[in-house]
Amino acid sequence: MHELSLAEGIIQLLEDQAKTQQFKRVKQVWLSIGELAGVEPEALTFCLDLVSKDTLADGALFHLVREPGRGWCLACSQTVSLNARFDACPHCGQYQVQVNGGDDMRVSELEVE
Amino acid sequence: MCTVCGCGEGQVSIEGQATAGVKYPYRAHHAHGHEHPHEHPHPHEHPHPHEHEPAPAASAYSELLDYGQGPAHAHAPGLSQTRMVKIEQDILSKNNGYATANRQWLAERGIFAINLVSSPGSGKTTLLAASIRQLSARARVYVVEGDQQTSHDAERIRAAGAPAVQINTGKGCHLDAHMVGQALQNLAPADDSLLLIENVGNLVCPAAFDLGEAHKVAILSVTEGEDKPLKYPDMFAAADLMLLNKIDLLPYLDFDVDACIAYARRVNPKIQVLQLSAKSGAGMAPWLDWLCAGVTHSQVGKQQQVARLQQRIAELEQRLQSRG
Predict the structure, then answer these.
(1) Alpha-carbon gap, residue B168 to B227, rounded angstroms
(2) How large is the ipTM?
(3) Alpha-carbon span A52 to A50, nearest angstrom
(4) DSSP-assigned letters across all residues of A15-82
(5) Cα-trace Rg, chain B
(6) How far apart, in whole angstroms, are the C-alpha atoms of residue B244 and residue B221?
(7) What angle do CA A9, A11, A16 make, to 5 degrees?
(8) A6 FRET partner, CA 20 to 30 A, in A71, B234, B252, B275?
(9) Dihedral of CA B25/B28/B31/B34: which sign?
(10) Buried b (16+ CB within 10 A) or exposed e, A78-101
């Protein structure tokens, strides 16, 4: 969903960082994308290639690191792994799982010059 | 342009006027004509010919970054200028920053804001118009309307008696906090009022974009599938309240209300559910009460904030006097 907006957000974030951290070009970017963040990695990579043209990240390599989904099962009071938001708890089979990880997206690291 | 959702070039307009500033400076059609020839193909390319530093491409899909192996390990300072910067920033932080500003702006004025999300055709605008008419004696209502094109919805809302501002997102598939912030300046809602933001009809993208609202409210009509909460889980996970609309049509449909609510709770164990029909008026009272309770809560919040500020002024004046 809305990968183009996200890609634009990423480039803006890089430009803001370029001012505060004093760099001019971005060569590689590591993105951490949760499995439950609702982002299609291929679409995001496609959009990043588009919007990075003529910016400080022109030609940069974008690495997408997937973070597994996690949730807290209210029934068995423990953290469990999730593949989708509405998955049942893999231990007790109940649907009382609250997502508590792997639903966010971050720019974690940059290689700059 | 975007092959996923049709998001396109910056065509956002508020009440037909282009918004101030360049919001999407990176879109291709904005690309300024290369007045600066950035063609310098890295003259400092590999000043050291000994290839003993593998690029960190090998670790591309792992979270482990070995600084000793990558280009950050510049063994001769000055030769290579590349460095690693760890930032750990949320990609939505820009939108979230605008949303925080909106939320503060609304809180200072005691305005209760909700973000209404649904598929196209679920009856959002009809529900809003009915709510506005029935709330006329209980609350001042303002509306921000989001649609790709036309101001039909804003006109319907104005006809129902509430000031409304229409945002046209162009090819965009959702409202974002920046658009809403600008719309608030145009709309200038009164203190202690109710602000209804009708998002673009879309159950996918608006889930991720905080606008500064107090609650997201998902509207699902019984003419849709009862498994929509499972098909579009992000939206129902983000919503605090689900309105099951058009229940006057239930006798003519195979819609399973209990299954639908169970699916919604599966995605979001804490979601509240109200069943209503904007057309027949059935079930409207609990929904209007829910809105009015929110309005009161926001008003009390503002009063408490004002009281705290007054108390601080009193304390400071006391300190000033004790010095004098």
Answers:
(1) 30
(2) 0.75
(3) 6
(4) HHHHHHHT-S-EEEEEEEEETTS---HHHHHHHHHHHTTTSTTTT-EEEEEEE-EEEEETTTTEEEEE
(5) 26
(6) 5
(7) 95
(8) A71
(9) positive
(10) eebebeebbbbbeeeeebbbebeb
Tracing tokens 């590689």 back to the chain, one arrives at A28
Is residue B201 within 8 Å of residue B119, measured between CB atoms?
A: yes
**Highest mean pLDDT: which of A79-88, B74-83, B261-270?**
B261-270
Do strands B272-275 and A26-34 pair parallel, antiparallel, or not at all (unpaired)? unpaired
Q: Please report where in the chains the tokens 């001042």 appear, as a residue.
A: B140
Report A:47-106 residues touching B (Cβ under 8 A). 47, 50-55, 58, 61, 63-66, 74, 84-86, 95-99, 104-106
- 3 state DSSP class of A100: strand
Residue B55 has pLDDT above 70, yes or no: no
Nearest Cα residue in chain A from B2: A4
Interface residue B83 vs chain A (CB under 8 A) = yes
Q: Is the Cβ of B162 closer than 8 Å to some Cβ of chain A? A: no
- Read off the pLDDT band of B94 (50, 70, 90): confident
Question: What integer pLDDT is reported at residue B91 of this predicted model?
Answer: 85
Residue B175 one-letter amino acid = L
Question: What confidence score (pLDDT) does residue B273 get?
Answer: 97
Whole-number Cα distances in Å, B221 to B128, B242, B253, B263, B271: 14, 10, 11, 15, 16
* A-interface mutation test, from B87, B88, B178, B204, most A Cβ less than 10 A away: B87
Strand-by-strand arrangement of the A105-112 sheet? A61-67, A26-34, A105-112, B83-90
Q: Which two tokens stand for residue B251?
A: 């006798």
